[in-house]
Amino acid sequence: MTETVSGSVTRGGKRKGLKMKRIFTKPGVHPYDEITWERRDVVMTNWRDGSINFEQRGVEFPEFWSVNAANIVTTKYFRGAVGTPQREWSLKQLVDRVVGMYTRTAVENGYFASDEDVEIFDHELKHALVHQIFAFNSPVWFNVGTQSPQQVSACFILAVDDTMESILDWYKEEGVIFKGGSGSGVNLSRIRSSKELLSSGGTASGPVSFMRGADASAGTIKSGGATRRAAKMVVLDVDHPDIEEFIETKAREEDKVRALRDAGFDMDLGGKDIVSVQYQNANNSVRVSDEFMRAVDKGEQFGLRARLTGEVIEQVDAKDLFRKMAKAAWECADPGVQYDDTINDWHTSPETGRITASNPCSEYLHLDNSSCNLASINLMKFLRDDNSFDVASFVKLTELIITAMDVSITFADFPTEKIGETTRAYRQLGIGYANLGALLMATGHAYDSDGGRAVAGAITSLMTGVSYRRSAELAAVVGPYEGYARNADAHKRVMRKHAGANDGLRTLGTMDGKIHAEASKQWSECLKLGEKNGYRNAQASLLAPTGTIGLMMDCDTTGIEPDLALVKFKKLVGGGSMQIVNQTIPRALKQLGYQQESIEAIVEYIGEHGHVVDAPGLKREHYEVFDCAMGERAIAPMGHVRMMAAAQPFLSGAISKTVNLPESATIEDIEQVYMEGWRLGLKALAVYRDNCKVGQPLSAGNGAKKDETKAAAEPEVKVIEVNRPTRRRMPNSRPSVTTRFTVGGAKGYMTASSYPDDGLGEVFLKMSKQGSTLAGVMDAFSVAMSIGLQYGVPLETYVSKFVNMRFEPAGMTDDPDVRMATSVMDYIFRRLALDHLPYDERAALGIFSAAERTAQQRGEDPAVDKEALAQSAPIEAKAVQPAAPEPVREVKELTLESHQRFTADAPLCMTCGTKMRPAGSCYVCEGCGSTSGCS
């Protein structure tokens, strides 16, 4: 695509700069002119009450953009007040605003050899963006070309020293970053432990105590931003004397959540009492050394060291400390691990300082007080119709993106001067990709297979090799990064390590073989040019979660993740959605050699069942190609670890990815994942055990515990007389309400009858045809429950036992008060509680109506909200003639997880109510693009 033209810059003469070649565009034709554009209306409704919370009509997008992608860009990235002439209304305006700044800056700083090269850069960048071939990270779309500071980075690393001034600066700097919607990370290991003395003679507070203040600050700023959590990472070295306290902080807080909920406090997400729980605004990671991991492996002692002197002040059993890390992660998903020696062995700038921390999702790892701007490539755009990979275009596009990303550092603004100085001096970039999972499935590769890992490794190696080769070309034109001279030997050593890893990559097929062959050429050229010119960028690549921008590019999968499920939902123009089988599945089946008739039958089966097990005509050896992150055939935890290991040697940074484990996983399973991550050369690793953060069934409460304690202390025998219960039968004529519901695509009816004077006395459920096994089970359950109610079993006892019960079908419901249910029983008893229990009793169980949740978010007390109380009070009994039809509650049907045969353990979006999906260690909403953390 390019070549470097030597020579000084002269007026009217030849410039020293890059000579560009076209990839996708044609001379004399603007890229917008080759697209069919259409006008659409974007109307977003509030999931709580159906009111409109965003409306912009007549927006303009290419016809091939999905409704979802257009909605997200319109609501998230268009600038200007809605309803004013200044408001952007076309994707052209957005892309022109961003690319215009990049192009002007490149010209002003002499990046290109001629005006023709400038035009090619401008046109190719616009073509790639409007065709969803790649996307910059969110801050670029928010800020570039506006009157706001030109903030382009999503990832920041801060530094904290062992002084009060530095700690207070940390609070301030984090606040500024959070206010801008970005995230940061910090290592607190320089702060003296609570086991060390101050110069005044007193004992130090320790880093964990200062985490409380930072957590409270982050929570306050998050509240100011309404729904977005403050994304942050806190790291502590494994040899810090307070490491055990750090490991257990969040696990202890999870115990507090359960205890407070059992005591009747409102501990739901967004609840008024959840703010009393500490350390919830950060991801925690332990920075482990090779010395520690070897001690764990051998069962040896390990020394904890004083922060100022470095002397060992305490010896601990390494295996015991490692188990405490795994146990805490098993309980609450924190802490993760970062492998310190591996990270710094691949560090290009060690003469400047060690890498001590990361951004919130652990993919950006570099110097303290630095930042990184990201961009991600949509890999599916390079898959040709014959299922070959367009290597040449991928190489050219990577060159283009690296050039543009480097230009952005030249004009960018930063939240602090220290971050600005470091980033301009080292020019860290973070190119990555999305849609790997879809690419592997479409080409017939199982995600957890040698072939799948070979493809992933080859693509990653090619991407990073091209990026650093391009960086060396840029160094010849606009100079290497300022810190290169003092780090030249180390930087070139790391380049040789990457090239050596590429030499060791073993390919298995034609596709990965061709990609790897090109990667070898690129690394050879990279080493040669780097030796001559140096490098423009201290860092080039990483793998980010690609949450919102993945949706912007209509990607099926994010980052390095596999597909989440085989069945998805597609938004339709004019509202509503339809369930579709992933479009990669027919392509994969064709690649595997199936005929059209068989493909249609298999796709129809998947659409009905949500998985491929026993699909007609599908060979069992092909099942693995369609394995997903969740569902009937979920990829094993070590499958995720092995995929990360395949890509890691070819990345400057690390990988944002959470290794998901089933609820049945053990502490030993997590120990194995952490140990294998170290052995396989990963830089960072996080785990999440399904349902580990969900509230447990309610206990007897504090009073019961006190009674048990007293009984244990005074083992006296007491005779308690128990009156025999009597049954209070229902009258022949009684008021009742029938509710029609849908849970995870399964429809049913519930008839709840009450005594005329008050109180629920009978419940009947219907979910299948009469005579079926399910119908019989439901009838038997209904009779058993109804008899129990009539014998005086309180409804709240049933509710406490059956809410949170987890089995299929599960997922989204059509009830605005209960948007998500973990099972049919979970839905039924939540609905009964809302209809028949008073507010105080429901609050103790954590069950609230939509109106009550809305009141809580506004800071109001639902207990005194008359409208909320009216909607949540027990349904007033109305007499119904026995032969008359019963009233039926009608609710709009919306089943976003229908037929998927799993319940993703992810939160509901606080903006639109859609179930979010995992994106690295964060979550992203497919409905509106909101994220739970990183951009």
Automatic annotation (TrEMBL):
InterPro entries: RdRp_reductase_class-2 (IPR050862), RNR_2_N (IPR013678), RNR_lg_C (IPR000788), RNR_NrdJ/NrdZ (IPR013344), TSCPD_dom (IPR024434). One of its GO terms (biological process) is DNA biosynthetic process. Pfam families: Ribonuc_red_2_N (PF08471), Ribonuc_red_lgC (PF02867), TSCPD (PF12637). The keyword Disulfide bond applies. It comes from Nonomuraea dietziae. NCBIfam families: NrdJ_Z, PRK06556.1. Keywords: Cobalamin, Cobalt, Disulfide bond, DNA synthesis, Nucleotide-binding, Oxidoreductase. Residues 731-834 form the TSCPD domain. Its EC number is 1.17.4.1. One of its GO terms (molecular function) is ribonucleoside-diphosphate reductase activity, thioredoxin disulfide as acceptor. Residues 153-688 form the Ribonucleotide reductase large subunit C-terminal domain. Transmembrane segments: none annotated. Catalyzes the reduction of ribonucleotides to deoxyribonucleotides. May function to provide a pool of deoxyribonucleotide precursors for DNA repair during oxygen limitation and/or for immediate growth after restoration of oxygen. CDD domains: RNR_II_dimer. It catalyses: a 2'-deoxyribonucleoside 5'-diphosphate + [thioredoxin]-disulfide + H2O = a ribonucleoside 5'-diphosphate + [thioredoxin]-dithiol. Residues 42-132 form the Ribonucleotide reductase class II vitamin B12-dependent N-terminal domain. The keyword Oxidoreductase applies. It comes from the Bacteria. Its cofactor is adenosylcob(III)alamin. Belongs to the ribonucleoside diphosphate reductase class-2 family. This is Vitamin B12-dependent ribonucleotide reductase. PANTHER family: RIBONUCLEOSIDE-DIPHOSPHATE REDUCTASE, VITAMIN B12-DEPENDENT RIBONUCLEOTIDE REDUCTASE.
